[in-house]
Specification:
52% of the residues lie in helices and 5% in strands. Helix 3 packs antiparallel against helix 7. It has a domain of 150 residues. By secondary structure, it is mainly alpha-helical. The strands form 2 sheets. The chain has a two-stranded antiparallel sheet. This is Autophagy-related protein 9.
Length: 296
């Protein structure tokens, strides 16, 4: 009976809260995940200490550690940009600069210096540069796709540069606040980094919030969007379960569907979150939920 009473008390902790028509209490919307670190040396002409605000979230700090530091992040971004350029350039070369009739020997070579039964080599099938350029100009759809690919590449370049600035701030935070040099980051586990974060929180305020930072807070912030997704799947709010003839119930969640759901719910212009850590104020009002649901 005592165990049953304890289970009942634990169950009551998870009962649904009553809807509230009022806005969130003051201060809840300001629970941001900005990290504050006071610089050790004087800054500015007056030599006054000021907090260095790291306007990035704990998930960025976690991913920075998982990607083994600043050099690996930069190398990864550079290789992705180079890979994109290589794929576009090589695909264009294969479409416009290769004579496949010669390559597959469906048409004989017309070079006087080549014997009739000579072996066809790759240079024989590659068209000259002027002929390749003329074939490229003749295909308007290909030019349009190249312009579109160039715009996508520029967007990815700008995104990589912006991410580079953020990761440089995180690198400074690891070195100056957590005392982990860049060359030793790969020797520290995430548990070690998390312990240093908690120790720093105890020495000086680290997160702009009203309560102490704990391991559970860090895990919740890192897995916030994933936890929301798992909860919506468990509550059958996302259309990922289907019943097929002869096969019965199946789960269908491709990468493309997952990307669209994250864009719709978390990262898009009409998402429920106004940033990476807080919901929009109107989402928290019970009276506006039905209208928001219809709009969504």
């Amino acid at each position: 009976m005592a165990e049953q009473g304890e289970e009942d008390r634990e169950y009551r902790q998870y009962q649904r809260l009553e809807d509230c028509e009022e806005d969130s209490p003051p201060g809840e919307d300001d629970e941001e995940q900005l990290l504050l670190h006071v610089t050790e040396g004087p800054t500015g002409t007056g030599g006054v200490h000021h907090p260095l605000i790291i306007s990035l979230t704990l998930p960025h700090i976690y991913h920075f550690h998982q990607k083994n530091g600043f050099a690996c992040v930069v190398l990864s971004d550079v290789l992705e940009l180079v890979q994109f350029l290589f794929v576009v350039t090589f695909s264009t070369f294969l479409l416009c600069c290769v004579d496949y009739d010669v390559l597959f020997a469906t048409r004989p070579l017309n070079h006087s210096h080549v014997p009739e039964h000579a072996k066809v080599t790759l240079p024989d099938a590659v068209l000259p540069a002027p002929q390749c350029a003329s074939r490229l100009r003749a295909k308007g759809w290909l030019l349009f796709l190249l312009v579109l690919a160039g715009a996508v590449w520029l967007c990815r370049l700008v995104t990589a540069l912006r991410r580079l600035v953020g990761y440089w701030e995180i690198r400074s935070f690891y070195i100056r606040a957590l005392g982990i040099p860049a060359e030793e980051l790969c020797n520290h586990s995430w548990q070690s980094v998390q312990a240093r974060l908690l120790a720093l929180q105890r020495r000086q305020p680290l997160c702009v919030q009203r309560r102490e930072l704990t391991e559970l807070d860090i895990h919740h912030r890192i897995l916030r969007f994933r936890n929301y997704t798992v909860a919506m799947v468990n509550k059958s709010l996302l259309p990922v379960r289907f019943r097929l003839p002869l096969l019965g119930p199946v789960v269908f969640l491709t990468r493309g569907l997952q990307f669209n759901l994250e864009l719709l719910l978390f990262r898009g212009p009409a998402a429920l979150f106004q940033n990476t850590w807080s919901l929009r104020p109107q989402v928290k009002r019970a009276g506006a939920r039905r209208a928001l649901a219809r709009g969504l």
